[in-house]
Amino acid sequence: MIMRNKALRQFGPGVNIFDMMSTLHEKYGSIVKLQGVFARSDLVILYEPEHIDQVFRSQEANPLRPGFQTLEYYREVIKKGSLDGIYGLTTAQGEKWRDFRTKVNPALLKLKLVKVYAPPLEEIAQDLVQRIRRYKDDTKYLEKNFDLEITKWSLESVAYVALGSRLGCLGDDVTKDHPGFTLLQCSKDIMDLAFKLEFLPSMWKYIATPAYKKIIRTYDKQWEISTKYIEEARKRINERGYDIPEEEKSVVERLLAIDEKVAILMANEMLFAGIDTVSFVATSIIYNLARHPEKQQKLREEIRSPDTHKRYLRACLKEALRMWHVIPSNLRRTDRDHYVAGYHIPAGPRAKEFIPERWLADKNDPLYYGNAPAIVTLPFGFGIRSCIGRRIAELEIETLIKKLFDEFEVTWEGPPIKVVTKVGNTFVEPYNFRFKSIK
Ligand code: HEM
């Protein structure tokens, strides 16, 4: 095991986690320890699949995930009275987490229940396609605003699943004072500020720094807007005055029947955790296909074929998730000693290339994904604490990608896209996509 404090200096604005992790790996080996500063725990980075597996599995019953300490503080201390000890999935630990997760799992992860959102998600994806159609010749607009457009789509989609109605962010006459825009901004600010406060050196645990004050204001704003939307959803449900089949209910309606506080917090977290994550992955697929016209054409043929099993689409989604993880690190807080020896992870076959075919290749093919240990790519995390939005996210993204590549030929004109790490990874403008209608 090699430990170096100075490795911490490599964190900084504009950092890209993939480069940083490779550099640390090359320099220090397969186990790297970053010493905690300002009341923060030490961080040990593991590169060896067996070691990752060993640590994850040791916590299978009750996984502890650190992070979002400012949100934890906000909910535990600042919002103490109103939330009454329920902290939501992102911040709860131990029995509290298990109880919450047991209540929400069926509503969010049952594939049959998630699939009922397919028709409204199609409509929302169609709205984005229509907006791109309108702006496709205004490359200056898209270079700057592609991210805004795609995050409006991901917010609109996840909000529909959570609340059962449209927010209207993708409309033509939407102005910047639409509350949806504030939610988008809150989600970005939280990523940015939480990274500064919780990953870079910060004194916020001792003094209220400007970034700390800003994140608390942002949590307040995000809470205020999301509860307003949740209240509206509740009012609509009450005014309807009759029950509807379970499969047609929004997540909030399903959960209100079980536990009111859990329903509110789950919907609140969806309106934050389901925006930039989903838009990042959708952008990553569009970008990779724009850079690989032959794969784009192969996908288009599948989209247009009558076969309902869109296997290549699924492979493209998996490949994009594998190449650039949204959440740059799968964190666990250790609750016991681990004894892990250090050696390098062998690079997976052509690991840096976008090759969706690896997910379809058979066992004899050197590309076969099973040749690399599954543990090296965990885009949705691990085990029972893994992402609860997974099914929803996959459905949203596949729906959009089908529509988009049916409608447009997409190219990328410019230098490779840049990834910058906040709490999640983000792409940065300019978005050099060019969309050509082909329908
Ligand atoms: C492609 C999009 C997404 C990716 C790649 C992603 C990835 C992740 C990852 C890696 C984790 C940590 C898992 C772990 O610690 O093992 C996580 C947790 C979580 N995600 Fe997602 N996510 C996505 C979309 C969503 C959506 C749409 C929602 C909204 C429903 C969501 C809500 C959450 C929540 C609430 C947690 C905490 C779960 C817990 O601790 O029990 N995510 N996500």
UniProtKB/TrEMBL annotation:
UniProt keyword terms in alphabetical order: Heme, Iron, Metal-binding, Monooxygenase, Oxidoreductase
Pfam families from the entry? p450
Entry's PROSITE patterns? CYTOCHROME_P450
InterPro entries, A to Z: CYP11_CYP27_families, Cyt_P450, Cyt_P450_CS, Cyt_P450_E_grp-I, Cyt_P450_sf
Record-listed heme binding positions: C387
The UniProt entry, under SUPFAM superfamilies, shows: Cytochrome P450 (SSF48264)
Q: Which cofactor does it need?
A: heme
**Gene3D superfamilies to which the protein is assigned, alphabetical:** Cytochrome P450 (1.10.630.10)
Spell out the molecular function terms from Gene Ontology: heme binding; iron ion binding; monooxygenase activity; oxidoreductase activity, acting on paired donors, with incorporation or reduction of molecular oxygen
* UniProt similarity note: Belongs to the cytochrome P450 family.
What name does the UniProt record give this protein? Cytochrome p450
Question: From which source organism is this entry?
Answer: Spodoptera exigua (Beet armyworm)
